[in-house]
Amino acid sequence: MRKLYIVILLILGMTGMGYAQNFQYGYEMIRLTSQYDKNIDPKSQKYVDRIRTRLNQEMNVVIGQCDATMSSYDPASPLSNFLTDILLEKAPDYAGESDFRQCDLSLLNFGGIRSELAAGDVTIGDIFAISPFENYLVFLDIKGSELRKVFNRFEERKKNAPYAGAKITYHSGHPIQVLVQGKPIDDERIYRVVTLNFIAEGGDDILRNIKYERTHYTQVVFRDFLIQEIRNMTQEGRHIVGKLDDRVVIKPMP
What is the pTM of this model? Predict the structure, then answer.
């Protein structure tokens, strides 16, 4: 159980009412326990219990099936591949504008994938564990020359991001070839990327200082998107499957 503490500042030496006067202060950490108030307010406890019961009921709703436990790790993993694949394939349906109905690339961040997905029943609570943040889907138009800068920042380990729609070949830890939709990046072409507002605004430095030709923010929370799309998969009789593929190729050292 997480320990809760209250910090009490002991303000010493203050005289009069003038806050501009010099004073000394100290502090003490005091653990907050039931010794301060052993009596639980019945109305408050009833309210908390009601909320807890309702929340547990909602979090335990089964929305799909996962064939095998999937973890997330760099430079690519079954879980990150599944998430970026479904984002690339289905996110354009949530764009709300006809000219954003097709994307070339999806981009997430490993730090935003907070849990693995266990084999068996998949609940709403599982998706909350994977994506606990209130991140929204964002569509970006990026010129090829700017997109090249993004991938040039990547390294084989620790400095990269999960994606779909591209293939990166690494050698000596650095990209030596990048293909988007099976072709080398065209510096003059405009590529459409679907990502999250956290990343679009510079989070994890993935798109930091990258110039966008156009942006389209939605009000669709990534977690809600995942829940709905997993439900759609279940209605179609499909299970959640994530696997490694050739989107990341690591050439051996000579």
Answer: 0.79
